[in-house]
Amino acid sequence: MSNPNLKIDHVHLKVSDLEKSLHFYRSILGFKIVRQESQTAFLSSSSSEDKDSSSFLVVLSELKDNNSNFSIFQHKPRIAGLYHFAILLPERRHLAHFLKHIQKNLNREYYEGMADHAVSESIYLHDPDLNGIEVYRDRSPSEWKWTDHTIHMVTEPLNVKDLLKKSIADDDDDDEWNELPFNTSIGHVHLYVSNLAKAKGFYHEILQLNHTATYPGAYFFAANRYHHHVATNTWLGENISPAYNDNNNKPGLDHFAINLHNKNDLFLLKDRLLEFKIDIDEE
């Protein structure tokens, strides 16, 4: 796939308590509800007054007949699925303002860490159901280092002092974090898998994403010259259960959507999936 407009469109998550999740996604992350249907909420960076309700970044669906106690989710099950989804902010100042916001308002139990990945700067946290979330900003592609088709990425400490200086320097009298900025998007999705070779077979050979980087136990894939739209890892081990074994009755990733922006690309992908005998749900 060489479509320069390919991106992750949205992620759909299963949650144990919709109201509790909505409080987190709105008050901590700054999402706005653009539509709500029964036990499902559609969230975006803009309210329904200024954005089409058919446009959203995250969908939250409460589990049906879920009688589980929240405490059972305090330990991550060994199941294939979501490691984290990543919220891409438009500018570095937005990340700085978000950091100041969570320093004041985030319960420490939801905080996971920060990192500089050379291509980007990231803050990690999780929601009330342990769904992993990365909030990040990209450095300019002119600063990225490529060797042929492989991009240089690292995991190093985030320079928090410098980031907060950016917040102060760019402050326009109001650094309060009230909502996600315009042009926020879902930058990538990172998944737990049981087999990296099989994951590469799907994302690289079938979906034809470029294999852009390799970490110990992890592969990264992207369209064009982005660092990654999808990542896969075996950090839970290779003997984990398939995602479908949980009978859809646990919090976690329901699905994520890729936007191709072009019907012809969609039809070509459909033909390719059928060629590899991969089932397609037409609905």
Descriptive notes:
The protein has 283 residues and is an alpha+beta fold. It has a domain at 78-275: 2,3-Dihydroxybiphenyl 1,2-Dioxygenase, domain 1. It is 20% helix and 31% strand. The protein contains 5 helices and 15 strands. It has helices at residues 18-27, 92-105, 160-169, 196-206, 263-275, and strands at 7-15, 32-37, 40-44, 58-62, 81-89, 111-116, 120-126, 132-138, 146-147, 150-151, 185-192, 210-215, 218-222, 230-233, 252-259. It has an 8-stranded mixed beta sheet with strand order 6-7-8-5-11-14-13-12, with helices on one face. It has a 5-stranded mixed beta sheet with strand order 2-3-4-1-15, covered by helices on one side. Helix 2 (92-105) packs across helix 3 (160-169). It is globular and about 55 Å long. The relative contact order is 0.21. The mean pLDDT is 89.
Low-confidence segments: none
The major pleated sheet works out as:
8 strands, mixed
Return Rg in Å. 19 Å
The overall average pLDDT, rounded, is: 89
CATH class of the domain at 78-275: Alpha Beta
Helix content: 10-25%
Order of helices and strands: EHEEEEHEEEEEHEHEEEEH
- How large is the share of residues in beta strands? 25-35%
- Corresponding CATH superfamily of the domain at 78-275: 2,3-Dihydroxybiphenyl 1,2-Dioxygenase, domain 1
Write the layout of secondary structure elements.
Elements: E1 7-15, H1 18-27, E2 32-37, E3 40-44, E4 58-62, E5 81-89, H2 92-105, E6 111-116, E7 120-126, E8 132-138, E9 146-147, E10 150-151, H3 160-169, E11 185-192, H4 196-206, E12 210-215, E13 218-222, E14 230-233, E15 252-259, H5 263-275
Parallel strand pairs: 1-4, 5-8, 11-14
Antiparallel strand pairs: 1-15, 2-3, 3-4, 5-11, 6-7, 7-8, 9-10, 12-13, 13-14
Helix pairs in contact: 2-3
